[in-house]
Amino acid sequence: MKSRPSGLRMGFLIHTEEAPEYQVHFSMWEWGRVLDLILWSNDIIDLDELKDRLTASQLKESNAKAEQVGVNPAEFDLAEWEEKVKIEQKKTKKEKEIIVVHSAPDKTGRNIFDAISQTVSKEPTKEEMEKMVRTGALSLSVFQDLEDKMFDNKDKLGHLYGIQGNEFDFSRKACWEVYSSFTCIMTGDECFITELMDAGVVKLKHQRAVKKKKSKQEDFLLEIAEEYLGLGTLAKMTRLTGILVNSIILDHQAIVR
After folding, report:
1. pTM for the full predicted model
2. Maximum pairwise Cα distance, the chain
3. Over the range 9-40, which residues count as b (16 or more CB within 10 Å of their CB) and which as e?
4. What is the DSSP letter of 90?
5. How far apart are CA 142 and CA 124, in angstroms?
6. Are 173 and 209 in contact (CB under 8 A)?
């Protein structure tokens, strides 16, 4: 169960326990795209499927934002998800609205996001209610999509399972996995940590936990970065890389909250 005040984006805050001030926040949409990039860097999906997934993510995000500003979005079949949204009026001491996402594992261990509830301080109009229901339904569908991405690939990326949620503590292997994925697509054959080690600047207390991946820098820069991600997400990925480098070199604990 997750609970966040309305007005804050439901997203993912990443930093190390030792240096929480050096942090980065991804929206749930951005984080979903990052997970798809990790799958692509591991050859779990190909370039065309990556583009399809990123396009679908952009469209869903646009729809969610359109709902918030009162613009009629493109149609999505959200009937299944709208049934799981509950809006409840309740007087609170503070003028805050609480969103709670409910999930539970099925027999296989996959988390099923079966409800989202929102407590509001004022009785919403019919139009406001419809907006909240559709926005909640979209959010719930995204949470399930994040879960499915990682659960379906536990055989290959089991050390990253849980990164799709807000209570993930990076193992050393998980740090190297995400760092290696980002290096593969953003810097190609160049590895900052290797360069520091070769120059004698740093000496790791452990061996590299994930081998270097084949460069996909050209495809990423020419076909993905500008059209599907944008400068904001690229800047966040760069900052996350810095957090992971610090975690690896300084042996700090990186977390997702």
Report:
1. 0.84
2. 65
3. ebebebbbeeeeeeebbbbbbbbbbbbbbbbb
4. -
5. 24
6. yes
